[in-house]
Each structure stands twice: as structure tokens, then as C-alpha cells.
Amino acid sequence: MSSPFVFLADAPLGIRVVVRTSIPGGYTDALGFLRGRSAASISVETRHGLVTLAMEDVVAAKEVPPAPAPRPRRA
């Protein structure tokens, strides 16, 4: 299993990812599309907007499948 840093450095921009980061008191996840990266941070486009995450706070990261299609409404 590769480290999250190796995965994020090698992953193509535009793939759907989940990135877990440490925050005071626990962890939080960002789910969305990988939009940018540098040595110090990555950018993930979530459904709430673009978030920038510090690489030093990253605990885990992986590619995730596309979101499921919306369910049809009941009549």
C-alpha cells in the first residue's frame, strides 16, 4: 500500500478522490475531484466548492468511484 503522498503526487488531475486530514480534535474528509497540487498543498473541488488542504495534514487518500446516479422520483 503506497502512502497518501505518493498517491497524490502520481494521481492525474481530475480524478475523484477522498482525502482525510487531521484537524484539532479529530479528522475530516474532503470528497471531490483533484484539481491542483503543489509540494505544500492540494486542491479538491467538493460539492461545496474548492478546498485547499495542507499536505502536512493529510493522513490518507484514495481514488473513489463516480457518484451514483440520482434516484428517480416516486410518482
Q: What do you see in this structure?
A:
By secondary structure, this protein is mainly beta. The protein has a single domain (4-63), classed as SH3 type barrels (Roll), CATH 2.30.30.520. It has 1 helix and 5 strands. It has a 5-stranded antiparallel β-sheet, covered by helices on one side. The longest helix has 7 residues, at 4-10.
Structural class by helix and strand composition = mainly beta
- Indicate the CATH topology: SH3 type barrels
Q: What is the helix content? A: under 10%
Radius of gyration: 14 Å
- Unreliable residue runs: none
Overall mean confidence score, pLDDT: 94
Count the DSSP helices: 1
Strand order of the largest sheet: 4-3-2-1-5
Q: What kind of sheet is the major sheet?
A: 5 strands, antiparallel
Domain Histone acetyltransferase Rv0428c-like SH3: 12-62
Organism: Cryobacterium suzukii
InterPro entries: SH3_Rv0428c
Protein name: Ferrous iron transport protein A
Give the topology.
Elements: H1 4-10, E1 16-23, E2 26-37, E3 41-46, E4 49-54, E5 58-63
Antiparallel strand pairs: 1-2, 1-5, 2-3, 3-4
Pfam family, one: SH3_Rv0428c
InterPro entries: SH3_Rv0428c
Domain Histone acetyltransferase Rv0428c-like SH3: 12-62
Summarize the structure.
It contains one helix and five strands; from the N terminus they run αβββββ.
